[in-house]
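re: ur question from earlier - yeah i can do the single chain one, its not a big deal. heres the input i used so u can compare w yours
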Amino acid sequence: MARQLNLINSLNLLTPLDFCQILWYDTNDMEKRTEEWLRQSEYDMDTALYMYEGGRFIYAVFMCHLAIEKTLKGLYYEKRREIPPKSHNLIYLLNEIGIKPPREPGKFIVKLNEASIPTRYPESLAKLQRVYSKVVVKDILSKGKGLVTWIKQQL
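and the output i got, formated as C-alpha cells:
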C-alpha cells in the first residue's frame, strides 16, 4: 500500500489533504474511526458553546450543525463500515444510514439542515444576526445536544 501511495503521490495525483485522508482511513481498527468522528463531534459542540458564550451566534449554529454531521458520520461508519459520504446534508446522511428520528428531533434536523448554507456563506450578516438571536441559538444548541445524544444511542 505504501508503495502504491508513493507512486501515486509522485505523479502529483493526490493533494496533501487527500494523502492524509487515505492514511487516516488505512487502518484495520474500525472502532477507532467511529470514536474519532465522535471525538470531533464533541469538540465541535464545545466550540459551538464557546461561540455562543462569545456572542458569535451564527458560528454557534454552524458548529452545532457540524457536530451533528460528524455524529451522523460516526454512526454511518459504525453501521456500514464504509467511509461516510462527503456531504453536509443531515437528511441525506440519515437516509443513507437508514434511521428515522422521532418527530420533534426530525423537525429540528430539517430546520438545522436549512441553516447549513446561510451560516457558512451569509448573504447578509446583519440579517442572519437578527434571525439567530441569543434566545434562538440557545434553543438550537439545547436541541442539538439532545440530538447528538439520540444519535449516539443508535450506535
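Residues 30-153 form a domain with the Four Helix Bundle (Hemerythrin (Met), subunit A) fold (CATH 1.20.120.330). not sure if urs matches, ping me
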